[in-house]
Automatic annotation (TrEMBL), chain A:
One of its GO terms (biological process) is L-amino acid transport. SUPFAM superfamilies: P-loop containing nucleoside triphosphate hydrolases. This is Branched-chain amino acid transport system ATP-binding protein. Belongs to the ABC transporter superfamily.
TrEMBL record, chain B:
It is found in: Cell membrane. The chain crosses the membrane at residues 12-29, 34-51, 57-77, 142-161, 190-210, 222-248, 272-292. PANTHER family: ABC TRANSPORTER PERMEASE PROTEIN, BRANCHED-CHAIN AMINO ACID TRANSPORT SYSTEM PERMEASE PROTEIN LIVH. One of its GO terms (molecular function) is transmembrane transporter activity. Keywords: Amino-acid transport, Cell membrane, Membrane, Transmembrane, Transmembrane helix, Transport. InterPro entries: ABC_transp_permease, BCAA_transport_permease. One of its GO terms (biological process) is amino acid transport. This is Branched-chain amino acid transport system permease protein. The keyword Transmembrane helix applies. Pfam families: BPD_transp_2. One of its GO terms (cellular component) is plasma membrane. Coiled coil: none annotated. Belongs to the binding-protein-dependent transport system permease family. LivHM subfamily.
Amino acid sequence: MPEAPPDALPALHVENVDVTYGRAVSALRSVSLTVPHGTVVALLGANGAGKTTLLRAVSGTLRLHRGAIAAGRIRYGETELDGKDPVAAVRAGVVQVPEGRRVFAGLSVDENLRSGGLGLGRRGRAQVQEARDRVFTLFPRLAERTHQAAGLLSGGEQQMLAIGRALMAAPRLLLLDEPSLGLAPQMVHRIAEVIREINAQGTAVLLVEQNAGMALSLADHAHVLEVGETRLSGPADELARTDAVRRLYLGESAEDRGAA
Amino acid sequence: MTGFLDNVLNGLALGAVYALVALGFVVMFKASGVLNFAHGSLLLFGGYLIAVLHDDLGFAGALALAVLATAALAGALDRFLLQRGGLDEQSAHIQTIVTIGIDILLFTDLARRIGGDLLPLGDPWGDAVTELGPVTVADSRLAAIVVSTVVIGTVFALFRFTSWGLSLRAAAEDLEAAALMGVRLGRVRAGGWALAGALAALAAVFLASFPAPGLERTTGQIALHAFPAAILGGLASPVGALAGSLLIGLTEALVVGYQSELHVLGEGFGDVAPYAVMLLVLLVRPTGLFGGKGAARV
């Protein structure tokens, strides 16, 4: 398997990617984006815009949904990711936290964390203890509940576990699909802090969010998808000031701005 | 009273053998979402190999080879035939139907080879019996209990402590999330099928040894009694398969043991009893004894 040299600073390159489901339904058309090493990039858009599809294309899980990359390339550093299985992405250091948390409810917290290291195979065993310490430092609450079934955790704790599980594979790029979904505002704030912390430790983040306010406050760069195509892209703070984003995703009306 | 203890011990032995079959059935289902209707024929395949090989290789050699060959066959059937249909739940339903076809092919060929014969497997227990206080029990039955206990304990340890076991349980809970963790779904799943094949070959030994007269072409059908055991246990629950098997084994042994008192039910109620028990359990607990949410995969 081709791998980037460990000291390189790899970036994720998505170039002109088309994705279709069931060979008929076009979900993405010529979408490009780059996630440079160590940055946070936000991907915004309404339901059905193709945000999750893009993450699936990167992580290699399109096939489980009968989808395929019809055109374009996806690379992480030197590693080609398009058309590969999820194992290739995990081994390259790209790990996705799925939408809706999807922790293994019947497994204990500890087993969920162990499962996060499964993709590394034998050579990853040494990293596992180190990764576990990192996860418990980030989420002390998980350390208190290692033997509890994951399904009994609260929504916020499950989101922490889902992120912690992904961190067990020591990713260099974390794909986060709607981490704020269904969480109380206080917990959304906490998750935002965690993302900032993970990024500060050197992990790049591609953040898919409907909560545009949160995403834009965290991101260096942002892209807005609309019905499968890139509508806007640019530095996050600039994008946050554009009319379209303010109106469509930040919930402000023209009058609000007039008054301000 | 002695009769009762005899029956209980026989029932436990029978249950232990059913457990090998039912556990395999459950492991396959948990790993793939596929109900393997070819399981009885896989068992017959393993038994047949022991029958034809034990003269040359000795019983232990023949058993080892048959266990490996049946594991390889089951694993290969899944990896190279069933998995081509896809790994998702909808495909699993189609693959379940495919196993019926596999069963017909495999059984027809084995039945042609075995014909009307009764094949001895050359097991070391023969028709020896052991006196345990007031009860007399066949050595083959004691061996069944001991071997099943050790093997099933090992399987549970594999589930709990190995990467493969964790991968399998994670994939059974959430296929996509497991894939995102880098679990090699295809390999893990085929591993489950191979393990189940090995268990089936082992079960064939005890289904064909004393007091059974030997391996016959219907031996695979006797294993059908393990299916209600798996279903009443909860289908996706290994512990349930174990409990279900003991319940079915005991029921069958007691019904057969007290046949004369139960003659109102007619001859051969022992064959029907497993299904009657299954229906009774499912009436009270539709998801089976241990089938919580896990059985939602059906």
